[in-house]
Amino acid sequence: MRTDPLPPIPPAPGDAPAPQVAPRDAGVPPSAQSWTSGSLPIVIFLCGLVVVGVVLAFGLRFAVKQFSTLAAANPDFWKSSRTATTRGTDPALQSEAEGLLQRVAAGDSAAAERVLATSDNWMGKTSRTQKADQAMTAALNSHDLGARAAAVQAELALGGVRRDAAGLDYLERTARGAQYRGWALWMLGAIGNRGVDPARAGQIIRNYLDDPNANTRASAVEGLSILATDDTVPILLDRFRHDSSPVVQEGVARSLAEAGMYTHAQRMVAAATLVTWLDDSSLSAAQREWTLHALRDISGQNLGTDSSAWRHWYESAQ
Predict the structure, then answer these.
(1) Is the pTM of this model over 0.85?
(2) How far apart are CA 126 and CA 107, in angstroms?
(3) What is the 3-state secondary structure (H, E, C) of 144-164?
(4) What is the residue range of 305's domain?
(5) Count of domains forming the chain
């Protein structure tokens, strides 16, 4: 389902931008002009202060410019800066969250229930770490949907996305920019799966199914598989047949077979169509192989390439 960590987290909603430095006034204040002529040493002293002020102002403005350049060139800069300062990680809560996720990855159902019950409270006090990412990846690859649900909800909390309408709005805005679009599409599926307006989340994701970029379309497919509503199954089947990209086709087959948040009953709905495609000569060789692979994963059996054997399996399973 997921072999690599999610892309870097964008700045959280509400994070303040870097402060703008107002230019310093290098001139002598008007009030000083009435008494500067009375003493040359004082004039020299004041001129010295003005020079020092100009130098300091220039240096500060240069530092701000360098800061902005670094942030623009390195998205991970925002991630580390936000984790260290804005989010105020609570070490004890971070350790507790990571421990729970490791237990979820190991198959502890009580830990999964605990994550589902408490992870909303992690918001702003925890962050994604290598240990947390490894545990969530393992849980997302579990056969237990309870463990997957806990990992999906943990992704939202550790990613700084509120599980409410404001969080959904934030993800919609983030998806409009190319830099974090893949992350946002995955998280849109996650927030919808965890109960926040699934219909709207699904519509936002579907808007990217015809994007010119195949990787974006593949991300949209993955987002729909995380959302995992009944109406997304025929949408993914349609993408498998009609999207020209092998990357998207394979992503659909994997999502319907074993990835995402689909129940076994939903995967069996997909299998009903997949079985009929085995005799369809219009499928490419790769599509046929991915169809067989998906059926093997859904059924837990290997019936070779014989379409009649697969039809018999499906009828018997029904």
Answers:
(1) no
(2) 23
(3) CHHHHHHHHHHHHHHCCCCCC
(4) 165-317
(5) 2
